[in-house]
Amino acid sequence: MLTEKEIFDILSEIPDPEIPVITIKDLGILQRVEVTGNTCEIFITPTYSGCPAMKMIEDQIQEALAPYQITTIKVNLIYSPAWTTDWISDEAKEKLRIYGIAPPEHSSLDKGALTGKAKELKCPLCNSKNTEMISQFGSTACKALYRCKDCKEPFDYFKCI
Amino acid sequence: MTKQEALFNYCLRLGDNSLILGHRLSEWSSKAPIIEEDLALTNMALDLIGRSVALLKYAAEAEGKGHSEDDLAYRRPERKFYNNLLVEQPNGDFAVTIVRQFFNSTFEFLLYEELTKSKDATIAGIAAKTIKEIKYHLRHATDWMLRLGDGTPESHLRVQNALNDLWMFSDELFEMNEVDEILIKEGIAVDLTTLKTNWEKRINEVILEATLIVPTSTFMQTGSRQGIHSEYLGYIIAEMQYLQRAYPDAKW
Ligand SMILES: [Zn+2]
Question: Which of A35, A130, B188, B238 lies 20 to 30 angstroms, CA to CA, from B121?
Answer without folding.
Answer: A35
